[in-house]
Amino acid sequence: MALKCGIVGLPNVGKSTLFNCLSNAKAQSANFPFCTIEPNVGVITVPDNRLEELEKLVKPERVLPTTIEIVDIAGLVKGASKGEGLGNKFLANIRETDAIIHVVRCFDDGNVVHVDGSVNPVRDKEIIDIELQLKDLETVEKNFEGLKRKVKTGDKSAVKEAELLERIIKALESGKSARTVELAEDEKEIVKKLQLITTKPVLYLCNVDESSVVGGNKYVEQVKEAVKDENAEVLVIGAQIEADIAELETYEERKEFLTDLGLEEAGVNKLIRTAYKLLNLQTYFTAGVKEVRAWTIKEGMTAPQAAGVIHTDFEKGFIRAEVIKYNDFVTLGSEAACKDAGKMGVEGKEYVVSDGDIMHFRFNV
After folding, report:
1. Which residues, 6 or more positions from 144, have their beta carbon under 8 angstroms from its beta carbon?
2. CA distance 306 to 296
3. CATH code 3.40.50.300 region(s) in the chain
4. Architecture in CATH for domain 300-363
């Protein structure tokens, strides 16, 4: 299941620096707007200590972690919704992502020019919000116009859809994102087809200097206050620190560097975990001598749906799943030991997969 997150933000907030250390891809990180003309795509390996434990026990030929695709999208300016700067390209790229990582500048540095002349993360956030809302408003109004003829004929589904679109238009016109509109289950499907940008889940990433990376600063507090009603995540990270960590060769060097800063882990790890939480994702494993592998699924997926992530044939021809809980596998040390101890469950089509399940699927094509 390919997960794609888009990194957005005004020019010079630290997006490309963050992208570089996330993916080890080398986007041009320069001190002027639009240094990232084309969206750069990088793939991040999702860190998971459970894979290391399984590798020790199974000793497979290879280990395959799950990944997240990160898209570094060109810097946005006022007027992007009307095509200013790289607006149209930016908005097309962001529409294709599952979640938005919105980087806001929360540090002072006279050597790094701010596109609006001063550091004000709440203003910066609102500039991007407004541009995205205006683009969504354009989309919704266009669809609303297209429904008018059907509404006049008394088409019940068209009337219902038009009422929903009117609610979304009202929210967008009042400066609120489409995600703030409460939806019934059947309305969610209608909204999904519209591909609105402001329905996507958002993680606000406060890019701070080294002295603020542990405790935050006044700018971080301003962001938290501004987004408290948005049902969004806020994370503090030092993009330059992450870049420095990425340059270190060994795990021991990275650990020592983090300890000196008073950090338990790299911000990248926290970022990936938070993205998972934001999108209601979890991981299950397959473990054999050929390979130990992590798979990403949505919370609440059943065993056949989880099997379908490996291959659609697995879902179509699903017979049953043999399931071992991760803690049982690690405690007992092998699949055979789990079987002997009665710790291997045989589950059918209704089984809901739990995070960390080790699964073997039986299927018939």
Report:
1. 162, 165, 166, 169
2. 9
3. 4-118+201-278
4. Roll (3.10)
Nearest partner of 91 among 30, 39, 141, 126, judged by Cα: 39
User: Which superfamily is assigned to 130-198 in CATH?
Assistant: Obg-related GTPase Ych/YyaF, coiled-coil domain (1.10.150.300)
* CB-CB contact of 268 with 239 (8 Å): no
Q: Does domain 4-118+201-278 have CATH number 3.40.50.800?
A: no
Binding-site positions for ATP read 12-17
Q: Which residues contact 158 (CB under 8 A, 6 or more apart)?
A: 147, 150, 151
Is residue 320 over pLDDT 70?
yes
DSSP state of 177: -
pLDDT value of residue 90: 63
Instruction: Supply the pLDDT for residue 231.
Output: 74
Start and end residues for every CATH 3.10.20.30 domain found in the chain = 300-363
Give the model confidence (pLDDT) of 64-93 as tens digits: 998 888 888 765 556 655 655 445 566 677
For the residues 325-353, what does the mean pLDDT come to? 96
**What's the distance, CA 357 to chain centroid?**
22
pLDDT band at 115 (very low <50, low <70, confident <90, very high): low
Residue among 178, 65, 191, 168 at smallest CA distance from 129: 178
Binding-site annotation: residue ranges: 12-17
- Give the pLDDT score at 27: 45
Read off the pLDDT band of 217 (50, 70, 90): very high
